[in-house]
Amino acid sequence: MKKLLLMPALLLATLRPGMAQSFVKVPGPVPSTVCYADTEDKHTRLELPAAYLQQQRTGQRRSTAANIEVTYTGFTPQAQAAFQHAVDIWESLLVSPVTIHVQATWRPLGTGVLGSAGATAYYTDPSGGIRSGSSYPVALAEKIAGRDLNSPAQSDIDASFSSTFNWYYGLDGAVPAGKYDLVSVVLHELGHGLGCIASTGYSGGQGSYSTPASIYATYMENLAGQALTNNPQFANGSTALGTEYRSGNVYFNSNLAKAVNGGVRPRLYAPATYSAGSSISHLNEATYPAGNINSLMTPNIGAAEAMHNPGPLMLAMFNEMGWFNTAIRHTKLPDSETSQNFTVSATLVSDGTITPGSVKLNYSIDNGPLTTLVMTNTAGATYQAVIPAPGLNHTVSYTIQASDNETARIYTAPAATQPILNTTPRFSFVVGPDVTAPVIKHRPLTYLFASQLPYQFQTQATDNVAVNTVTVEYAVNGVARPALTLSYQAATNNFVGSLGTGGGPIVAGDVLTYRIVARDGAATVNQAQTPTYTVNIVDFKAAQNTYANNFNTTSAVDFVGEGFSIAQPTGFTNAAIHSDHQYYDDSTLVYQMLVPIRIAAQPQILSFDEIAIVEPGETGSVFGTEAFYDYVVVEGSKDNGATWTPVADGYDARLRTSWLAAWNSGTSGQNSTGVGTPAMFTAHTFNLGSKFASGDVVRLRFRLFGDPGAHGWGWAIDNLNVLQVTGTASELKAAGGLSVYPNPSAGQFRVRASFSKPTAGVELLVRNSLGQIVHRQAVTAAAGQLDLPVDLSKLAGGLYQVSLGQPGDAVTTKVLVQK
């Protein structure tokens, strides 16, 4: 069985008027699968695909065949050979001009887990797409767009396979009883990464799907032929949709798939009990059982089962989603202040052959009747048609269409929407006076290190006709400097320019204010500008042995970063460091302390009060592994930020019961809606000396990592202290040790200790019978008696261990809690 992990990060396309498409990464679900073994021996074997056999006979690859490059980590030669065989099969079946990059890891996985794989990102509306408003796994999106959309250095599919399973590594499909065919499992999981993913979810009777819906999901229908995405009858997150997901009757409505399936819609796996990771994202097991030519993409992979063929049904579904495609590449016409003839040009890239006479331009003026022109093939794959001058003060809208001889499908630009939406997207442009101002997209600076000067400003600016100039108007300490003119870079679609000290010095402590102004080239110039942003120019300060900050009265800038600020949210009685509430999926937030700490000869303790409501990992998961999910971590660097070392393992909401309860208190989709309150602040203590040596000068930073999956309230830090320990357990013992009263108690008791001198860097810990920490707080005491209240009344009765001291040097006693 396969377990679906819904993770964020959709890449959404935005169209710059007058330019080709560009893509911006935003949070969203990125599905992945985990494949579990079925213990039943199947004793079945599928024939290899004809295309692969033809390639083997001739020894030649098709010129258009896909190229899949795999980066192998940890694989044995046998395992790599099996993996590569599955890759070779997919290459023989797919067409793509863009290399598909796979990151494959061979390592121990969980009990019964064969492997996992998934696309690393999704894009919406790639140029030449099949359906607008839907999302495509990156490998498919790149094939359709005809170019890399993510960095060529990034993988398109990530895959992990168990290094400890009972594998059959042979390539012949003769799998013995009790063994699992690695070729079949790899072929199956790569199929998910290539697009066989519905990205659906089910919780509390409610069914859901990612938004925008995956291209696969837009073809889902119920028995009655009703669409299950973008349909008000089955709203996203509704019980009506949940009922359909468990109906046993969910289908993939594809003309191409029906043509190879006896004229009927392929049936998807939708059992009465929703199975996360299996439901909807597979073909139905009972309809296509072991031994059926279409059985590879069903949910069960059994022992002694060889499936070295995706099957004609899955291939037809892939072709419907765009793996067979005619891409119409066109740059939208910009607005014009002049009435003239407008030439519409498009380049067609087809996996088949263009049907003669099928390339047409359909246009209308002011939403009037459509006029259709057959476009002329002017050179190679370029087609053109001319829209006669419409006159001034008119809006012209248009589409381009074509079909291929192989599928007889009609492709359009812009791409058609899902039929249920009943809308027809069109390109449009206005002829007449330009009164539209440019649009500026810019992520403002909040701080800038003096050492980063000269700094390269960059911003995006678009216009319905054309952007003429983009400038940065700025001042230092309130005194205006000459404006900085930015230049357009076509490769990045950004306007860029270097801000230096040519206009005068800029040093740490200065305050820079700036705004970005964009002007178009209209007869009457239109202008847009951003708000005025304030930027602190900062640098690292002199190293200190100690540091204290309650964030209420500090005037100097001691912290800088993204996604954090010193703030006082509603419900809090004083200021503290707060991350964004809520933080985003697939993000890393960093807040850096500008005061380095010099490690002293004696132990040095970092302590603060905190709330960390971040996504908890799987039960038993360990920091640094994939199942640990989101976390917060304190890190230090002794080489000026070149490398960072965790001061202690990262942690999540599981560290404190109140944090975990807050995380679980409410959800929206997969995300927590729980909110932090001042009562949740608890002390946390770290020994800097455990990671760094005496004399090291250490920079500290606080980092929140959010994986693609779910997010929540975030992190808050208050009362931060770096102290040199002046009290030890041996001094504590000499002064009378540690006592607890009353003992036994009902859960509320006091801890008493005596100190002969002021003490800092000491921590009180309470552990249960399993050794788990159930209570902790930092202790700072003047000379004399320490008397601390402890409340365990919400915990179960039993014997608890109480310790007071520092890591590796503490005094302990026990307390009995009776309920």
UniProtKB/TrEMBL annotation:
Secretion signal, residue range per the UniProt entry: 1-20
Keyword presence, Translocase: no
What SUPFAM superfamilies has UniProt attached to this entry? Metalloproteases ('zincins'), catalytic domain
Q: Which residues form the Secretion system C-terminal sorting domain?
A: 740-817
Q: Name one Pfam family in it.
A: Por_Secre_tail
GO MF terms here are: metallopeptidase activity
In which domain of life is the source organism classified? Bacteria
Keywords attached to this Swiss-Prot or TrEMBL record, sorted alphabetically, are:
Signal
Keyword Signal applies: yes
The name this protein goes by in its record: T9SS type A sorting domain-containing protein
What is the species listed in this Swiss-Prot or TrEMBL entry? Answer: Hymenobacter persicinus
